[in-house]
Amino acid sequence: MLLHMSDLRDWILGLPAVGQYTFTAEEACLRQSAIGAANTNAALTRAEAAGLIVTPVRGFHVVVPLEDRGVGAPSWRIFLDPMMTHLSLPYYVGLLTAAAQHGASPQAIQVAQVLVPRQRRPIDVGRGRIDFVVCHDMPSAPIELVNAPSGRYRMSTPELTALDLVRYSSRAGGWGNVVSVLRDLAPALRPSHFRPVLAIQPVAAELARLGYLLEQLGAADAAAPLHRWIEARPERWVPLVPGSGRAGIRDPRWRIVVNESIEPD
Prior knowledge:
By secondary structure, the chain is α+β, with helices and mostly antiparallel strands. The chain has helices spanning 8-14, 25-31, 37-49, 76-87, 95-101, 158-167, 175-185, 195-199, 204-216, 220-231; strands at residues 22-24, 53-57, 60-63, 92-93, 111-116, 123-125, 128-134, 143-148, 151-156, 238-239, 249-251, 256-258.
């Protein structure tokens, strides 16, 4: 059914009632074909100025739910998965964002951290931001699907989240914050659930660092499969904190040189 220009607002406001919070410019133009693309785009611009929609990426629009209009933007949970499908970009929610979903309490969770296979600039939506981190393990990364108002989104498992905190420590607030988050995340870790993480063939140094830190935090059971993995490989000593020199106390169990004392934030 074709809509007149005045009907576009009603169509937009009616989408959440049928569980849809996103639409493309092409969809809007198709429904408004009687008035043409230019007029439809002008109507969408007015709808955005009125706070009814936001446009996180070109040609992709998100309806702002009534309860979010006070802050001017919807939660990323509403639109992330359809947006990434629109961009044809594999992804998973990870790092501090995933840690918070798994029960940890990182200090900075205002930014949604999303791992993708290639570089992409951050996306600002209202006061929120989606920050992208490049990860080359996308096809085999162990993820779980989380329900959202408009469907589901992909998120790293607790075990992959723990490894990513170590792999991308600078994006997780530094080593002090990594230890703090791992401490909160440890109760959610299951030894058997590390198998899919080990299957992606992580860098031995990163796995050794994670195992050492978990054991120091009292999560020896969770660290056990990581130790078996390290023990089965050729001996190679690595510094606990990269870039801080190689002098320090040696931990033969993990082949870690404790070159810096890490205190939780």
